[in-house]
Amino acid sequence: MRPTPSALLLPLMAGIAAVLTLAIPLPSFAQAVTACLQCHGAQTGRGEAPVPKWQGSVHADNGISCHDCHGGDPKDIVNAMNPARGFLGVPREKAIPAFCGRCHVGIMREYLRSAHGKALGAGGPTCVTCHDSHAVKRATIDLINEASCGRCHPYARAVEIKEAMRQTEGIIGGIEKDLTRLRNEGIDVEASEKSLFSLRNTYRRLFHVVDTARVKRESGTIQQELGKIRLSLTQIDERQRIRKIAGAFVVGSLLLSALLLHLLRRTYDDASPPGD
Ligand code: HEC
Ligand code: HEC
Ligand code: HEC
Ligand code: HEC
Ligand code: HEC
């Protein structure tokens, strides 16, 4: 029987739809169009400059927009920048840690206690010196580099703290890779992901103390905790391996019995008299 056109069309359309969904990954937060973005995006120079920088940032990816930092009313084009609508304007240098620290509370606390925080307004770096204000990217240990950390003092003291962090960062990176692999295999690793997430936060916050001795001390404790996650992943891998071997065994036995059955049938057919 020839398939009807609609019987051919349906799977074809379903196929196209599947390819399209795969090809266009939607961001987890759609970037809402606000009055701020509309007006600033249409400006030139100083007013427009933050828009493209922000667009590629970790904040844009997580739905943190102009008004989340600067305040104001994102729905009212006329009163958007009215202080009565909560517009905060541009923070002065000394106000920047509190400006970012509204959301990054723990980091602000560590920073304010550090040699950097104590030198705030007197030659010390603020959050935006190291992270930028609009082009903020996911933080990695590579933020510690000569161009950034050699601006105010010898780079040597930055190298010392970077070396102290490298090993732990390496372990974190390795576990992250394994978690991605296991997740792609369809295994539930949520509990491990949660523990890693909180350890990683604690660890990266620690950098802001810029105290090499303390980083070394706390790295030991954190590496012990990371060791526990590592162990549970090794156990998952081991279980998977056993499951795969068992699976292969079952498939092998099925094939073998099918073959035996086939041979048996042939023997039986050959044995039966013709024209029966
Ligand atoms: C109708 C147009 C318009 C809208 C809407 C608008 N802005 Fe502005 N904004 C401007 C102009 C014009 C400037 C001055 C730019 C310059 O200096 O070149 C400005 C300046 C700013 C500044 C710098 C202020 C300063 O003191 O230097 C910030 C921050 C800012 N806008 C944020 C926002 C935020 C956040 C929103 C949304 C809640 C918003 N804007 C909505 C037009 C607008
Ligand atoms: C993560 C918080 C954050 C977000 C989101 C953010 N800004 Fe800013 N913005 C700042 C900070 C902090 C400064 C002050 C930077 C400095 O002093 O170096 C600033 C400065 C500015 C300035 C003044 C720049 C200058 O040259 O003096 C303008 C204009 C501005 N922002 C507009 C915007 C617009 C428009 C958006 C949305 C596209 C936006 N900002 C999103 C934190 C933010
Ligand atoms: C309104 C809340 C808010 C403000 C204000 C804010 N942030 Fe964020 N920030 C976030 C959120 C939400 C994320 C994404 C969280 C995540 O996925 O890790 C983020 C992520 C980040 C990251 C990347 C974290 C990582 O995992 O690597 C950095 C760096 C960062 N912010 C720096 C800043 C700086 C610097 C400022 C001030 C200029 C600032 N933030 C102001 C909410 C905020
Ligand atoms: C805007 C200038 C500036 C930048 C950029 C800067 N620092 Fe500093 N740093 C200071 C000042 C000021 C101090 C405190 C006074 C001093 O010890 O010289 C300091 C102190 C330190 C200390 C000693 C802390 C202590 O308790 O003795 C370390 C470590 C350090 N910085 C690391 C870094 C690293 C790593 C970077 C880059 C990610 C960096 N700094 C970028 C200005 C800066
Ligand atoms: C001297 C440079 C410097 C300053 C000043 C600084 N940071 Fe960082 N920040 C870093 C570095 C380096 C890392 C990454 C550490 C790592 O990967 O181990 C980082 C990591 C982060 C993270 C990611 C933490 C996580 O859980 O992954 C956030 C968020 C952040 N900083 C926000 C801030 C805020 C807010 C301020 C101001 C209160 C600030 N930083 C000041 C250099 C700096």
Layout of strands and helices, then pairs:
Blueprint lengths: L4 H19 L11 H7 L8 H6 L2 H4 L4 H5 L25 H6 L3 H9 L1 H4 L8 H5 L14 H4 L6 H29 L5 H18 L4 H60 L5
Helix pairs in contact: 11-12, 11-13, 12-13
InterPro entries: Multihaem_cyt_sf, Multiheme_Cytochr_ET
Organism: Geobacter pickeringii
Keywords: Membrane, Signal, Transmembrane, Transmembrane helix
Explain this structure.
With 276 residues, the chain is mainly α. The protein has three domains: 26-90, no CATH class; 91-137, no CATH class; 154-266, no CATH class. The chain contains 13 helices and no strands. It is elongated. 14% of the residues are buried. Bound molecules: heme C (5 copies). Keywords: Membrane, Signal, Transmembrane, Transmembrane helix.
Rg over CA atoms, rounded to whole Å, is 30 Å
Helix and strand element order: HHHHHHHHHHHHH
Bound molecules: heme C
Largest sheet: none
Count of extended strands: 0
Number of discrete domains: 3
The rounded distance between the terminal residues' Cα atoms is: 33 Å
As residue ranges, the low-confidence spans are 1-5, 12-28
Protein name: Cytochrome C
InterPro entries: Multihaem_cyt_sf, Multiheme_Cytochr_ET
Keywords: Membrane, Signal, Transmembrane, Transmembrane helix
How would you sum up this structure in a few lines?
Keywords: Membrane, Signal, Transmembrane, Transmembrane helix. The chain is built from 13 helices and no strands.
